[in-house]
Each structure stands twice: as C-alpha cells, then as structure tokens.
Amino acid sequence: MDKKYLLIKNYKDDKKLRTSFNELAKKIFGLDFEDWYQNGYWGENYMPYSIADGEKIIANISVNIMDFACDGKRKHYIQLGTVMTDEAYRHQGLSRFLMEKIIKEYREQIDGIFLFANNNVLNFYPKLGFQKSKEYQYSKTVQNVDIMSAVPVPMRSRTEWKMLEAAMKNSICNGSFEMAYNPGLIMFYITKFMKECVYYVKDQDAYVIAQMGDKDLLIHNIYSNKVVDLNSMIKAFGSDIKQVTLGFTPWNTQGYIKSEVQREDDTLFVMGKDFENFDRKRKMFPTLSHA
C-alpha cells in the first residue's frame, strides 16, 4: 500500500470521513448509510476498515460482528461486506491489504468468517484462504383456505420501529440456523427497502417479515417469544398463497423441497473450522443476515 495512504477504521462518528464513505458507497452500490446513522441503527457491530487518501475514503471492507444460533449452539462470526474501491485507485492491491489485515486481526477470535461475492471477483477470495460453499433453501406448495389474518404493520415511524425492536429482543429462535439479536442490520432493511414487509399474526403473537406476491410468499424471519407453528403462520397469509419459500432454515424440514440456492451474482465464501462442512449441513444464511 502506498505510504501516503492511511488505514482507518470504525470512524462512523467522524462526519467528514462518514460523508466520504457514503459518497463512495453511493458511487459503487447506490447505497447511502447516512439515514441509518441518523436513525441510531449504525452501531458498533458494523465497522468500516478503510483506506483514506487524506480525508477521502478510497477503499473499504466492512466488518459485521454477528452471533448466530446453529442447532441451539451459540456461534461468533464476522461477515465481510461493503467491499469497494474507488475506480481511480484500483489495481493497487488495496482490497487485498484490507482483507489480509482483517483476517489476521479476527481469525483467532471468532468461529468463522463469511462473505457474499459478486461474479467478477470469484478468483480473488480463494487466494486468501476462503472456500466457496453451497446453501440450501426450503420451499413448498400450499393449499390455504383461510382468510388472511396477518395484519400489515407499516414501518413508517419510530413507534412502529420500537415495537418491532422489542419483539426481536424477546424472540427465541424459530429456525435451526439464525442470526441472534441484531437490530442494527434488521432495521437497515426495515427503514429502507422493507417498510411494507412487516406483519403481525395475533394467534401466534408473532411479528413476521415477509414479501407477498400474487401467489407467492417469502418469509424472511419470524419474531416471537415461543416457537411458532409454521403451518399456521403460512395459513395466516390467506388463500391466495400457493407457494411458500423460507428465508431461513426451519427446525423441521419435513414437507419442504430442498433446493440449492442459486443467485445470479452472489456467491458464498467461508473461512474457519466452523464452516468446513457447512454445505453438508444443508442450511442457508438467513436472507436478512446479508450485510
């Protein structure tokens, strides 16, 4: 790395650096993290590791500290994301420098490292010790006859946000591989792209994050203080639903079709002993755990 550049990290409260980070994120991904910060959801679990040229952020890899529950056992992972380099500063090894720095710092502290890579860098990560891994998603056809009882709860104000946060905080795991309480990441989705995707199912006393099509239902996650009856949960979305896909791995997979996850431009890479046989476990990282 050029000696005139600086390695900086976890600078979210520095307005100039945060603004420069946001400018690069908008340029590369079309994302702006400023409202996430102003809403109070950019917490200590999302840490940019960046290279700066003066006060300009020119490259970044963000460390997302995450706890998971895997078959009832607590796991400590980091997910790497927001991997980006300003076009004018590419081909200088900046991403490799950051990646090696992060791996050295965290590898002995956690159970595993994972990331989702786009297709133009698939040859980069194996050189650093990552392995490509498969995921498996569960779906099934249904014949609901019930009237829809799931009540939409639009996330348009802090009142609704706080209700959902409370449900998340008091929730138990409704899947066999689930991200532990992580309001910062979930609320990134809810306050941006998924304001109309939250429902309350009264007879299960559960909040559900789901996306409905004309006949399809994608259930991203369920928050409740008890294990819900998943079939009853599906019925709550009414008779129009004919196909259900889960964004998490259910405790009981009986009756579901298991399919290898195929994403157009999103490949899972893993590192660490905890992930050596991840594809054999036939699980998937929950859709809302992607950072």
Would you write up a description of this structure?
The chain has 291 residues and is an alpha+beta fold. Helices cover 20% and strands 31% of the residues. The chain has six helices and 15 strands. It has helices at 15-29, 34-38, 94-106, 158-169, 183-190, 230-235, and strands at 6-9, 46-53, 56-70, 73-85, 112-117, 131-132, 136-141, 151-152, 177-179, 198-201, 206-212, 216-223, 243-246, 257-260, 267-271. Strand 3 (56-70) and strand 4 (73-85) form a beta hairpin.
**Which strand-content bin applies to the residues?**
25-35%
Shape: globular
Beginning-to-end CA distance, first to last residue: 26 Å
Cα radius of gyration in angstroms: 20 Å
**What is the CATH topology classification name of the largest domain?**
Aminopeptidase
Profile the largest sheet.
8 strands, mixed
Look at the structure and give the CATH class of the largest domain. Alpha Beta
